Amino acid sequence: MHEECGVVGVSFKDEAPAALSIYYALYALQHRGQESAGITVHDGTQVRTLKGMGLVPDVFNRSDIQKLKGYVGIGHVRYSTTGGSKIENCQPLLVSSKSGTIAIAHNGNLVNSKELRDELEKEGRIFLSDSDTEVIAHLLVKKLMHSDLEEGVRELMKRLVGSYSLAILVDNKLVIVRDPLGIKPLCLGQIDNGYIVASESAAIDILNGHLIRDVAPGEMLVFSNGTYESKQLVKLKNSAHCVFEYIYFARPDSIIDGELVYGVRMRIGENLVDEHPADADIVSPVPDSGITSAIGFAKKSGIDYREGLMKNRYIGRTFIMPGQDMRETAVRLKLNTIKPNIEGKSVVLVDDSIVRGTTSRRIIDLMRKSGAKEIHIRIASPPIISPCYLGIDMATREELVAAHKAIKGVEAVINADSLGYISINGLVKSVGIPLDDLCLGCLTGLYPVEIPGEQCSRRQLKLSEF
Ligand code: AMP
Predict the structure, then answer these.
(1) Which residues contact 142 (CB under 8 A, 6 or more apart)?
(2) Of 184, 359, 436, 441, which has the fewest CB atoms closer than 10 Å, so is most exposed?
(3) Per-residue pLDDT reduced to its tens digit, 122-178
(4) What domains sit in the chain, N to C, each tagged with a CATH number?
(5) Which of 5, 246, 248 to mutate to test the pocket of ligand 1 (most atoms within 8 A of CB)?
(6) Does residue 351 line the site of ligand 1, with CB under 6 A?
(7) Is 5 a catalytic residue?
(8) Is any ligand 1 atom within 6 A of the Cβ of residue 289?
């Protein structure tokens, strides 16, 4: 099961209600998951949770938010693929024990969750969901029975293999943990009267706060009484920040691990011109995901930027639709051409990525029907050749068009006049983070953690480094 999610944690100094801030922050993170949303708050004596299937405004109304009393809390938006789309998997997830209640919100994916779950089930623990987050929750509860918070979380981290950005409520303490490779983003901000931690800095912005810094890989933050304490529980030589956050997943207005996503996408567009120049009349984006790179391409090449496609903004991402037929229908529903802009023109069409190839093929067909003379596709990621096991819902290897075909083959499948992908070097240069500190698993087939049946890059997580 693969998941894409957004997490939030808020801690206020006084009795200010955390739920409203969490609600706004989840709104800002809605693009990270549209399947379910949830908030858990604590008021010093009682924990309260509300969660449900659907978008943030479908799950919460004004009176719900008012009833969620508490000055500290966590929130979650979630999207998962087949098998996981049910209410039991909604987060925050609560686990009670003799020592109290733990609520947990997780972004990421563990690759050893089955093994850990089998072990915990043998000890008699009962699981209510099939999510790896419940495994983390049970394991933490177990560790906390014998250790204090710092030692318990350290022990927990020793067992988890994969990506995890966590917002946890241990009674009325907000505990934040980022995995030792910093695979999924997580950042810390200051807001009026307190602090916020969120998957993306855009959530801090909308609360009128300011970004303090990223949570460091392997770091734990504990918030209580209006302050926080930081513990670097694990320190590895290198990080493995997910490069797909920059390519597609994150909002362009977010700053992730020091890099503004908009800037990265602009630079990719500019670098694409050097790597794959095109002789064309206009540069056009596939909205919304190709817009920023298309602007970069147009600026650098001097070719006119002109929109050839218009998006219906009331339709979610087509990827979200289950089943291939639904996806194809969704593309038609989602995009229409602006005919006079493309008729008789040679068009450079910029998109962020090609996964299965279905979207590109349909868009190209649509543009040809509307009279485009030539269509030169430029893609802001290198070919995606391997699945993601670490928190991006990508597709299986069989479904990935570039896993089986060379670039000329993909060009033929999508029916483009030419196809150019940014190179891995060009991408890394555009991101501005050293190659050794990025996870490029989907582009290279080399993963930063050990995954059965896959190759591991040199940054294999060694438990001896804890
Ligand atoms: P396709 O090649 O038909 O699978 O669709 C690729 C398009 O889907 C890309 O251009 C992206 O805009 C979008 N996309 C890529 N990865 C994801 C993802 N993990 N979740 C949702 N949409 C995605």
Answers:
(1) 120, 123, 125
(2) 436
(3) 999 999 888 899 999 999 999 999 999 999 999 999 999 999 999 999 999 999 999
(4) 2-240 (3.60.20.10), 264-438 (3.40.50.2020)
(5) 248
(6) yes
(7) yes
(8) yes
